[in-house]
Amino acid sequence: MAAADDASRPFAGLSDVSISGDISVEGDISVPVGSSRRDDEYSTLDEPVKETILRDLRAVGNKFIHVLYPKRSSALLRDWDLWGPLLLCVTLALLLQGGAADSDDQGGPQFAEVFVIIWFGSIIITLNSKLLGGTISFFQSLCVLGYCIMPLTVAMAVCRIVLIGGSGTVSFAVRLVVVTASFGWSTFASTAFLGDSQPANRKALVVYPVFLFYFVIGWMILTFSPSQ
Amino acid sequence: MATAKDPFQFQEFEEAGNLLEANRDATTISIEDDDVEPERQKRAAGLNPSGDDDEDTLPYDDKSELLSGQQKNAPFWTFEYYQKFFDVETRHVKERILGSVLPWPGKNFVQVHLRRNPDLYGPFWICTTLVFAIAISGNISNFLMHLGKPNYKYTPEFQKVTIAATAIFTYAWLVPLALWGFLLWRNNKIMNLVSYSFMEIICVYGYSLSIYIPAVVLWILPFEWLRWCTIVVALCLSGSVLVMTLWPAVKEDHPKVIVAVLSAVVLFNVLLAVGCKAYFFSRPEPALPIDITTAAVVIKTSSLT
């Protein structure tokens, strides 16, 4: 009889274990009414487009300044974006274009070649650093490598201006100095950002590809000669 | 019933015991093989079994065996699988480059320097450096050749990068692939004591190209005799690294096969070096460049029409 009773209530044992009545469950669920109004202040939905663009441009500009003063190393790594690298890469490729795309003897790098060298170069360097056991994330590394092209883009602009004046020995010497300086600057800035992500016994293995990358870009800038 | 079961169970037990014994045997045999084979390989490679050498190599062998045991598990589509090919430190890479630039008779590159831990870092970046070194110094030598002439306007030749990249990466990947396939096929026919993995052959080929980087930079100087001298020196060094490394893998074979393999290896090396020199560093002749440019213009116009 008792067994049949137990069988009819299979969870009888469980009801004994349940929370005793004298523990009251308290708490309140409140829907935060005021916070929605606070969110509105930070929402980007109904702000003017000009402000959105300006804010992004300001972030890009801040990163340019970080490249100029490479000592403050963490700011460029914290929030990455690829707008600056895209801007620099397109500017550099357009400046290297030579202005006369239809001339036959144009042997310099074409827009697509520059673009591919910069992006695939930085992707390969990033993969290399990840494969060697680096602690930096993929897009952070791409962002740093892209932003550090900036000195070389500036050198390219300077070279175009110098080349207007003429293409003699003096002009070549000036261009050589400018490109060498900006190449050193780029390499120094990027290693300041990227160097800490590697163990000390592998630092040279990561720095060497970066050096080669900027060296090739520097060579493209130095040997650029506009077709008349 | 029970009596009928007893012998059956006993038999099973005996079988299990046999299996266990067989397993034990197998493991002992495999351990012995592992211990014996490096010794044989060293002897086959012509290493003198001096005490110093053994003390030097044994800890590394142990370490690399442990590491390879750890990393064997990762399948090939994961990132970790490729990480084991980049498991090198700066001093390893330096040591390997030096070993490939200064080959020493009796020192097998794979057994002395790689120690069962072939890397892809060196081959990839040596090839890339060589591509840009050839393209850049080819451009500079072209510029120096025409420097004094009037009416000469320097134009960069960026297509040299593309062509050099195609040539060098084809050489550094397809020749090892063919060689590895051939050695695998020969290994089925004749038991060779030494067999190299694909990565080891790739690694040897990549590092053997490192001597060409300084050679190519020297080719900038417009002296034909200097270029041929550096070609011969570089060929001797990189060819001897390749031949000395491959020698233990083929030496049990027929003499004809040995000669064919080694001469093919050397021939491809010569083809690469001489081809690069002939294409990227043209001979300083006064009349030729104009002919080439006019011919190019003619070809271009004819292809356009």
TrEMBL record, chain A:
It is found in: Golgi apparatus membrane; Membrane. GO terms for biological process: endoplasmic reticulum to Golgi vesicle-mediated transport. The keyword Transmembrane applies. The keyword Transmembrane applies. It holds the Pfam family Yip1. Coiled coil: none annotated. GO terms for cellular component: Golgi membrane; trans-Golgi network. Residues 67-220 form the Yip1 domain. Its main location: Golgi. The chain crosses the membrane at residues 80-99, 111-132, 144-166, 172-194, 206-225. It is a multi-pass membrane protein. Keywords: Membrane, Transmembrane, Transmembrane helix. InterPro entries: Yip1/4-like (IPR045231), Yip1_dom (IPR006977). Belongs to the YIP1 family. This is Protein YIPF. It comes from Pleuronectes platessa.
TrEMBL record, chain B:
Its main location: Golgi. Keywords: Membrane, Transmembrane, Transmembrane helix. The chain crosses the membrane at residues 120-141, 161-185, 197-219, 225-250, 257-280. GO terms for cellular component: Golgi membrane. Residues 29-64 are annotated as: Disordered. InterPro entries: Yip1_dom, Yip5/YIPF1/YIPF2. It is found in: Golgi apparatus membrane; Golgi apparatus, cis-Golgi network membrane. One of its GO terms (molecular function) is small GTPase binding. It is a multi-pass membrane protein. GO terms for biological process: vesicle-mediated transport. Residues 100-274 form the Yip1 domain. Belongs to the YIP1 family. This is Protein YIPF.
